[in-house]
Amino acid sequence: MTDDKGDAWIEAGFRQLARSGVEGVRVEVLAKHLGVTKGGFYRRFEDRAALLEGMLQHWSAGRIAAIEQQTSLDGEAARDRLRALIRLYSERTNTEAMAVELAIRQWARSDQVAATAVASVDAARLKNVGQLYRATGLKPEQADAQAFLFYAFIFGQSLLFLERGPRGRAQLIARSAEKLLDDDT
What phi, psi does 143 have (nearest 5°)? Predict the structure, then answer.
């Protein structure tokens, strides 16, 4: 279990992960960025593997909690909640969070613990958005397919470099997002 100072190491780990991937998350590098000695690290973590495990736990718990909160209807219509989610993820770009997401996914390609964390986050994302689509009246199979398309769109649009400029991009995203909300889906 980490304390507030352990959390500082985890946050520094995420910043380094976003910059240089999991290979760049080294105790010496993080200590330098935090302006402390390596000894401080070993008072909070047994070793680098414990830090990496803590990072994955922090990331997966945070992502799962976020999607559960973001998909809560709280009296709102399911289509309105889906529309709000699309706006949330397409109108503002959090480049560091996207870099962390991509780095963790790359890490998961060669590490089973990271792959398990990614799979749990993806399952929660698909389950919660699928429930929103079910609430619109879609059958379970259709709702699951729409949830999959929803996330393919959310992540895909953030990775594409469009030559349309900000306004053209926003218009294209809005038109594309409406396809995810069509009554015919």
Answer: -65, -40
Q: All domains of the chain, ordered by start, with CATH? A: 4-181 (1.10.357.10)
**Cα–Cα distances in angstroms (integers) from residue 46 to residues 24, 139, 181, in the given order:** 18, 48, 48
Per the listing, tokens 């070793």 go with: 47
pLDDT score for 4: 61
For residues 21 and 30, give the distance between their C-alpha atoms in angstroms, rounded to a whole number. 13
pLDDT at 167: 84
Share of the chain above pLDDT 70, in %: 95
CB < 8 Å & 24+ apart, contacts of 78-84 = 78/132, 78/133, 78/135, 78/136, 79/136, 79/181, 81/132, 82/129, 82/132, 82/133, 82/136, 82/150, 82/180, 82/181, 83/177, 83/181
- In the block, tokens 């749990």 appear at 120
